[in-house]
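pls design
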């Protein structure tokens, strides 16, 4: 909503989004933790620079549930790295939804890693490790079975910094926008170089959320 004072407009925060009916189906047993996380993100997210002022009005559908849709694709008992975790999207949401998975949240900014540690503690999550680092600096923490990322960068930039974190045969799980097919085409040489194969783009949340969630899913083969 725009508010005008002496002809100058500025954006004002909308009210918090009400919990959608789809939250129960998507989060299941983790619904209460999802509610607590969402409430904390609404309360602190804008002040800490984790989400923009307009995102409060769509925090459930565009952020929390969008992230939680990836949970069924995680390997049971596996190790997951979330690159550029920021507010914990998708990594912290996946950690609360899948307590059987060890999740490492990789984030270079101190105020964000402070938030991630504090929020993990508030939620009582014991399967989370927070690592203040760039992806390129996090290789010693691996190898991981899977790597996630959301709103970090285009594939041609993202693949070279994430593929080295994986074990041979590990998976890339990236939340992407409507132009993901164009990104795949633009990254063809990079994908070949890093032995990325079995590429699929899955549309998640159809009929559950207002916007389709696109998941780029691929396997990283063994190095020669």
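designed seq:
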């Amino acid at each position: 909503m725009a508010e005008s004072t002496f002809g100058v407009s500025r954006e004002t925060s909308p009210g918090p989004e009400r919990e959608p009916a789809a939250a129960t189906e998507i989060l299941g047993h983790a619904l209460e933790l999802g509610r607590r996380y969402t409430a904390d993100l609404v309360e602190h997210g804008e002040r800490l620079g984790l989400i923009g002022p307009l995102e409060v009005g769509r925090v459930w559908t565009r952020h929390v549930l969008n992230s939680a849709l990836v949970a069924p694709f995680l390997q049971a008992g596996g190790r997951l790295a979330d690159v550029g975790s920021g507010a914990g999207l998708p990594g912290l949401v996946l950690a609360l939804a899948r307590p059987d998975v060890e999740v490492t949240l990789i984030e270079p900014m101190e105020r964000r890693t402070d938030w991630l540690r504090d929020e993990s503690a508030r939620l009582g999550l014991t399967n989370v490790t927070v690592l203040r680092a760039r992806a390129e600096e996090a290789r010693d923490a691996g190898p991981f079975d899977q790597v996630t990322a959301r709103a970090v960068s285009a594939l041609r930039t993202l693949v070279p910094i994430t593929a080295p974190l994986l074990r041979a045969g590990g998976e890339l799980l990236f939340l992407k926008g409507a132009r993901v097919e164009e990104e795949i085409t633009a990254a063809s040489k990079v994908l070949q170089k890093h032995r990325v194969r079995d590429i699929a783009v899955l549309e998640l949340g159809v009929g559950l959320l207002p916007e389709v969630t696109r998941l780029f899913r691929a396997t990283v083969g063994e190095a020669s």
